[in-house]
Amino acid sequence: MNRADFESADDRAEFEALLEHAALVYELPGVPPGAAAATISAAQRRDAAYARVGERVVDACEIPIAVWNGRRSAGLGGTADVIDHALRRERVVIC
To answer: Does 70 reside within a domain?
Structure first.
């Protein structure tokens, strides 16, 4: 999650308050591996970040549970991509 993803000040403040209570914060790099920051758009960087977060969650879980409409991802890092990653990692996935 990126602070810039929150449109309202109230939502950002809530995120910051929750973040302060976190026992562990794991920050991922802002640019996809192998990409130069100048060559990708902000939207591509955001999508790639969500994809990396989904992969990190799967890698940290033994049995991921997903709420999913069964459709393909609208963009990189959507639920279908995360489920595909989990299945490639041979995780049991509950949808």
So the answer is: yes
**Amino acid type, 75:** G
The residue type of 14 is E
Cα gap 85→89, rounded to integer Å:
6
Instruction: Return the structure tokens found at 88.
Output: 């490639």
Is the pLDDT reported for residue 34 higher than 70? no
pTM for the structure as a whole: 0.71
- Domain tally, the chain: 1
User: Long-range contacts made by residues 19-28, C-beta under 8 angstroms, separation at least 24?
Assistant: 26/56, 28/52, 28/53, 28/56
pLDDT tens profile 66-85: 898 989 988 888 999 999 99
